[in-house]
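Model the whole thing, not chain by chain.
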Amino acid sequence: MMHTGSVQRALRHTELGLTDERAVDMYKMMMLARRFDERGQLLQRAGKVNFHISGITQEPSQVAMGFAMDRERDWFLPYYRDYGFVLSIGMTVKDLMLSLYAKGEDPNSAGRQMPGHFGSKRLRIVTGSSPVTTQVPHAAGFALAAKMRKEPSVAIVTFGDGSSNQGDFHEGCNFAGVHQLPVIFVCENNQYAISMSLEKQTRGRICDRALGYGFPGVRVDGNDPLEVYRVFKEARERAVSGEGPTLIEIMTYRVTAHSTSDNDMAYRTKEEVDEQKAKDGMPVYKQYLVDAGLWSEEKEATLQAEIRATIDEANDYAEKAPFQPVEDAFRYVYAEENGEG
Amino acid sequence: MPVIEYIEAIRLAMKEEMERDNDVFVLGEDVGLKGGVFGTTKGLQQQFGELRALDAPLAESAIAGVAIGAAMAGMKPIAEMQYSDFMFPATNQIISEAAKIRYRSNNDWDCPVVIRAPIGGGVFGGLYHSQCPESVFFGTPGLKIVAPATAYDAKGLLKAAIRDPDPVIFFENKKCYRLISDEVPEEDYVVPIGKSKVMREGTDLTVIGYSMPLHFAMQAAEELSKEHGIEAHILDLRTIQPLDREGILEAAAKTGKVLIVHEDNKTGGVGAEVGTIIAEELLYELDAPIRRLCAPDVPAMPINPPGEKHYLLNKEKLKKAMLELARY
C-alpha cells in the first residue's frame, strides 16, 4: 500500500498499529506453538504421554487474535486446539508441558483434565470441558458481568466448526445479541469435526448466521495473521464501545488427525492434506517479515535454537515433576471449610 | 412473627439478597416486568432495574450457561427455570459445567450459581408442568440440592444457597407456593445447607421426606395420634444433597421403623439412598423393613383429575402407610 505523495511503502503491520517488535513477536509465538505441538505428537508416539491434540496450521490466526486482545481486562474462553492463543495470552510452554504429562503443577487442572483443556484464573483463561460449545453461553455470562459492572472487558470465545451445530452456539449468540453484550464469538473453521467434513455439517456459511442474531459476521483467512489481527481489533472496539457482539469465522484447515487417537487417512486423502499444508500461513508471514527487513535466516536459526532449548527444558521439568498426590485427588468437589475454596 | 406464603418467602429472600449484595441478580423467562409466571420475581425489576431482573430469551441452556459464566466472573446469579420439567436442556450446563468447575480446575475457578426450579404436581399441569426431577441431578458430586417444605425454610435456604460458594439447585414446590404459610422472621437468617429438621417428635414410627408430601405426613400424624395414639416422628431432609446422614440415622434409630416419602418416582429416587444409608448403618436396630411411599414408576402424572389424584400422594395414603408400619 502506498502513501500519497510518498515513495515510502507503509507496511501492513504498521498501518494496523503493530510495532515492528510486536509483529516479530507474533511470528516467534506461532513458531513456539508449532514446535510445542510437534513435540506433543512425538511424545505421544514415543509413549511418554497418553494423548495429544493438535492445532497445527491454526497458529497464525490463534496468535493474531491473542495479540489483538487486552490481557489485563478481557476474558478468554479457548477451545482445545488453541495452543497459539493461550501462549499469546500468557501461558508458558512449561505450563502446557505439565498439562501434557498430567502433572500436579499443571496450572490448568493439576493434571486432572486431558491436555488442551485450558484454564488459569490468573491469566483470565476460563476453565473448559470436553462436551463442546458449553463455553459459548459462559462467554455471554462473562460479558454480561462486565456490562453489569461497567468494566471495559470483552469475552472472547473460540470453538470449532463442529461446535457451530450445537444448541449452545445458537443460544449463546442469541442471548448476547439480545443484550448487546461485549463478546467475540470465534469459529476456527478447520473444515473437519473429527471425520465429518464441512459439507456434512452445514450447507451455509457459519459467519452468515450472525445475520440471524442481529450482529456482524465476518469471515477471515486464517493464513493471513495481519488480516486476522485487524478483524479482531475492530470487533474488540465494537464490543468495548457498547455496539455488541461479533461472530468471526476463521477459515483454516486441520492438517493433523483429530487427535493422536484418530487415523485421518480413513476419511480423507494425503493429496488433500498436502494441498492444504502448502497454504500454511507461517512461511508466508516469515517472508513478509524478511521483506520488511525485520527477519533473516540468522534470526530464524537463533529462534529455532531458543525454542528447542525452551521446549527441552520444559519437557525435562514436566517429565520429572510429580503427579498430584492421590490424597489430593478427590479434593475441591466443594469449597473447603478452611476457606481455601 | 409474620405468617407469610411460601412463594412470598422465596421472593423476599431474593429481594433481600439483592439489596444486600449488588452482585446478586436473577435471570429467566418472564422474570422481568411480569414478575415470573407464578409471581416469584414480582417487583424485582421495578426495584433493581432491567439488568438485575433480567428477561432471558426462551432457551434454558443459555439461562443456565450464562448464569454459570457470570458466576465464574464473580457474580451471584439466580437462574430461574420456569418449570423443572423444562430444565433438561440445561442439564449439560448443570452437570458437565457447574458441578465440575471447581474440581476440574483444582480449585482455581468456582461457580456460585443458584438454579431455581419449581417441582411437583397437583395443579393440573399434566405430564410437563408437574414433574419432580430431583433424581436426575441427585448423585452428581459438585452440586448441592435443596427442597424446602415450609416458608421459613424456603427463605432461609434460598439465602444460604445464594451465599454458598458452590452451585445449588433450589427445588421449590409449586403446590406449596400459596398453600403453605408459616411464621417467617423479619430479620435476616439462613437455614444451613445439609441439615435436616425434626418437624414432629414421636416414638412409634419415623417418616423421612422432603417438600410437599411432608405436609400430608403431618396431617396424617395428627389424626393417627388422636385416633390410635400412634406418635409419628417426622424428619424433613430439607437438603437432599449432601444428605444429613447423622440426622437420618438419629431419626431412624428413634423409632426403629422408617417410612420414606417423596413425590419423585420410587426407583432411583432420593429415598433409595436414604434407605440404604439406614440399612448400612442401622439394620439391626430396625424393628420393621424400611418402606418407601413415592410416586409410581410411570413417566409423569396425567392431567385428568382422577388420574392426577391417583398418581399423587395425599393424607389418606400417608395415613394408611404410617398405620401399617406402626402396627408391624
